[in-house]
Amino acid sequence: MQEKGTISIHTENIFPIIKKFLYSDNEIFLRELVSNSVDATQKMKRLATLGQYTGDLGDTTVEVSFDKEKKTITISDRGLGMTAEEIKKYINQIAFSGAAEFVEKFKDAKDANEIIGKFGLGFYSAFMVAHTVEINSLSYQEGAESAKWICDGSTQFEISEGTRTERGTEVILHINEESEEFLDKWKLQGILDKYCKFLPVPIKFGTKTDSVEDGKDEEGKTKYKSVESDNIINTTSPIWTKSPNELTDEDYLSFYKELYPMSEDPLFWIHLNVDYPFNLTGVLYFPKVKNEFELQKNKIKLFSRQVFITDEVKDIVPEFLMLLHGVIDSPDIPLNVSRSFLQADSNVKKINNYITKKVADKLGELYKKDRKGYEEKWNDIGLFVKYGMISEDKFYEKGKDFALVKNTRGEFFTIEEYKEKVKPTQTDKDEQTIFLYATDTDKQDSFIQSANKKDYDVLVMDSPIDSHFIQQLEQKLEKTSLKRVDADVADKLINKEESFANVLTEEQSTKVKEVFEKALDNKSFSVEVEGLNPDELPVTITMEEFMRRMKDMAQTGGGMGFYGQLPDHYKVAINGNHKVVDKILKAENEEDQTRLAKQAVDLAMLSQGMLKGKDLTEFVRRSVEMI
């Protein structure tokens, strides 16, 4: 049997186009060919299960091997195999149906994924690395003859009698000069580990040497010997293919360590398993989150029937859950034939919604079941919850029942609990309930203490997205606003129309203002003399709540970059009722007045970490002189 022919195609430009546009992703050739072998093996097992094949299945391991001298890579299986007619049908025709349209449409394309995806070119990815490809196959069908197909990367092929004597297929790639990097054990092992680590059929790649115990020596010490065995690169039944009731906590933790060897143990996990209206399995882990958002992302791996596809899952997983780790496997996520590019589809949105709901249900369950344990995890969980509430209204509606806020005393409250707590003492003259918050408890300690003296409670809002979360709470909560604790002096944080009379005359107030303006000598500071509690600080430096909040948001990329570029402007509140002000007015000369005022201002700046460099050095020197 021998036949020559031409692949069903109307142009000779097809292979150059494949090579040109797929070269940047050329390692997928191995994934495609191994996946094809696994598919053929699984179909063979299915036929045996159905009784349509009664022979001995034998060893169904798929084997990958290479020969550096001959410059070949071989993928061999004991699956269905193919007859000569099936090779012509599946390899020559189906892959290139509409090929003329393909060439015309994509001759100027730049996206490799788009090209592979349109016309079933998975097998032909082999030509990215090979100048010639051989197929040697023997069908499982009774009486079938072995067939061999060979193609040199042109549109010409040749089919002849094959040499295979056992059921299955082997694909031999004759590697081209540009791709000889793939004729390396560790390179191939790396690709197999990346794409094929969880395929459902054993994949053998050479052998490995293990050290095993071999009795005791004369001194009673354990002896070891080297044993060579098949190097099976994959786990055929990963945990996401099993039922949750088959698994222990140790199974989940062990799998997490397999995926992320250098990571701390996760906080908890969610096992996904749905078969209608789409198929989806997987395990998502909540990691201990650091503040570096981007370093945490892209840790969810997408599989399709246990074949690794990508870790770019932004369309499937909601943006706020991109910080999760784990795996998702779904045959219903629409991929192109290269299995590396997500396509728009209604199922993607359904899956996205399902994952959001599962996460919300899990968090609500944890909160109700063990609130204390939930509070202990809140520093890590909180980032996900707040991010989700900001991103999606549906998640906000669920999340508001288990989202927590924490005050400076370390106490936790739900949002509604907190509102009820502070309403009696922190409601202003307009019936607005004011939530006070700190972004840096050390830096803002003096302001926190001043607020506490008035029986005000202060929240800690120091996560990277809290500036956005604050905005959302104000939009969602009725008659509620939030104000940073250092946005004004304590007496004016919550306007209750209560005030202390200023003991200074108008003339004295003008004089004090002039002295402090001279001491500051800075247009970024505006001075006001006010009647405040005598027990408060003599000088308080604040920034208006609106401007400070916009600057906070600008730092976290909230689209407020304009405000981040504006120069800082501060309000300097002089407590006219403080004894230091009286001392300044009674100073013997203008120089002493300015010196005392400068000292009081520097103390206020020091308390906020604003005193640096030469100003700090001068403050220390002046303080020593004044002792």
TrEMBL record:
State the name under which the record lists this protein.
Chaperone protein HtpG
Determine if Cytoplasm is one of this entry's keywords: yes
By its UniProt entry, which Gene3D superfamilies does this protein fall under? Answer: 3.30.230.80, 3.40.50.11260, Heat shock protein 90, C-terminal domain, Histidine kinase-like ATPase, C-terminal domain
According to the UniProt entry, its GO molecular function terms are: ATP binding; ATP hydrolysis activity; ATP-dependent protein folding chaperone; unfolded protein binding
Q: Tell me which domain of life the UniProt entry assigns to the organism this sequence originates from.
A: Bacteria
Its family? Answer: Belongs to the heat shock protein 90 family.
Q: Which UniProt keywords apply?
A: ATP-binding, Chaperone, Cytoplasm, Nucleotide-binding, Stress response
Q: Which residues bind ATP?
A: E32, N36, D77, M82, S97, G98, T169, R339
The cross-references to CDD domains, in alphabetical order and at most eight, read: HATPase_Hsp90-like
The UniProt entry, under InterPro entries, shows: HATPase_C_sf, HSP90_C, Hsp90_fam, Hsp90_N, Ribosomal_Su5_D2-typ_SF
Pfam families assigned to the protein according to its UniProt record, in alphabetical order: HATPase_c_3 (PF13589), HSP90 (PF00183)
